[in-house]
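So, read this over?
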Amino acid sequence: MLARLSRALARRRLKAPAYAFLFEPGPRRALQDYSWIGGRLVLSVLDDLAPAFEILTPGDWRRERLGGVAAIGLAHSG
């Protein structure tokens, strides 16, 4: 759960949820790492043991999947 304090307080005044769940693990899905790059949050995920990167844009937390990542081997976001 990641949120800026000022946004959290503003949402609380509006009675909107203060936090957003940005990752949900699964039986074969795990968060390996995360980093901020270019003002966006990059999640490094192991999905069925294959590396995947999800890029989230703050605000509406729009999610994009980064293509071109090798299915076998290592990939690092930072």
